[in-house]
Amino acid sequence: MTEVQPPYVWSEAERRVVGEARYTRAELAAASGVPEDEARRLWRAMGFPDARDDERIFTDLDLQTLGSAHRLVDSGAVEQATLLQLTRVIGQSAARMAESEVHVVAERLAGVMQAEGVEPAELTGAVVNFVSALADELERYITYGWRRHLLAALARESVGVVEAREGGISLTVGFADLVGFTAFSQEADETTLATVVDRFEEIAYDRIAAFGGRVVKMIGDEVFFAVDDPVTAAEVGLELAATYSADEAVPDVRVGLALGPVIVREGDLLGPAVNLASRLVNIARPGTVLVSAELADLLGEVPAFSLRQLRRVRTLKGIGRVPVYTLRRR
């Protein structure tokens, strides 16, 4: 069932962001030469609800982008199904960036306007005008980030680090999550909660990148990361445990690390090693790092580390009985 949207009023700010509204959905499809059902699937994959048949909300930017998408398929560069996958990833990432940008500006302006005695009702208009005026600068910054990450992805591909081969590739993956966060989130106010989450993410990105790893994604109170080298991954795990323990602004974390085959899909990592690391972090004690048997075999030869097998073999959900090791510095 198509969701019915209220009439859309185009303001000057909106025109600055995406251009003048010129086309209905059918007119956009006709002008681009893309079948209407195909255009609708891409629009939905980007994360937007259907426009009404008589709703004139599409701009020349939509027309140009739809033409580019069609040419990617027509040239044979990607298949239609692959394009839809890419569109979903782009839509999810772009939505998070847009929400974050607007939220940051709104918080800043709210503080300034409150100090100046401005009515809160004027905040929305101020945010819209401020963000839309900076749209070009934000676009350049986002494009820069995308190009840099594109180059990094190409570099990993060239050495076979993230290439999705049959059976996957071998990586060390890890999870670190905040201890007691569920209970904390029920008691803390919104400002305190946001401060803790921001600090958690700041430390995760800084420490993981400092050792040459990469953050795959943040999942609320948990960070999922990957590191090419097993020894370096162990250093990352220990560093995270130590850094969070020493930081009074955030709770301790527990860390789970596993080595094994993974499959790359839509920027995410999947596979047995990911599942195992996720289970290990759930049974780790605060401030400790648990590692899989495969990883322990490699780290046992490194003088800097000390490994101790847990007394009893653990039964992990969806995995079964596996030996588990605690990792420490020697």
Distance between the termini: 62 Å
What's the main sheet like?
8 strands, mixed
Task: Enumerate the spans where pLDDT stays under 50 for 5 or more consecutive residues.
Answer: 1-8, 161-167
The CATH superfamily of the domain at 165-329 is Nucleotide cyclase, GGDEF domain
Please state roughly what percent of the residues sit in beta strands, choosing from under 5%, 5-15%, 15-25%, 25-35%, 35-45% or over 45%: 15-25%
| Helix and strand sequence | HHHHHHHEHHEEHEEHEHEEEE
Global Rg:
24 Å
What is the structure about, briefly put?
Helices cover 53% and strands 18% of the residues.
Question: What does this protein structure show overall?
Answer:
This protein has 330 residues and is an alpha+beta fold. It has a domain at 165-329: Alpha-Beta Plaits (2-Layer Sandwich). Helices cover 53% and strands 18% of the residues. It has 12 helices and 10 strands. Strands 1, 2, 3, 4, 5, 6, 7 and 10 form an 8-stranded mixed sheet that branches. A hairpin with a 3-residue loop joins β8 (314-316) and β9. α2 packs across α4, α5 (80-115) packs across α6 and α9 (190-210) runs antiparallel to α10. The N and C termini lie far apart (62 Å). The model is unreliable at 1-8 and 161-167 (pLDDT under 50).
Distinctive features:
single chain, 330 residues, alpha+beta, Alpha-Beta Plaits, 8-stranded mixed beta sheet, two-stranded antiparallel sheet, 10 strands, globular, disordered N terminus
Question: How do the helices and strands line up, and which of them pair or pack?
Answer:
Elements: H1 12-18, H2 25-32, H3 36-45, H4 60-74, H5 80-115, H6 123-133, H7 135-158, E1 169-178, H8 181-187, H9 190-210, E2 214-219, E3 222-227, H10 230-246, E4 253-265, E5 268-270, H11 272-283, E6 289-292, H12 293-299, E7 305-309, E8 314-316, E9 320-322, E10 324-329
Parallel strand pairs: 4-6
Antiparallel strand pairs: 1-3, 1-4, 2-3, 4-5, 6-10, 7-10, 8-9
Helix pairs in contact: 1-6, 2-4, 5-6, 9-10
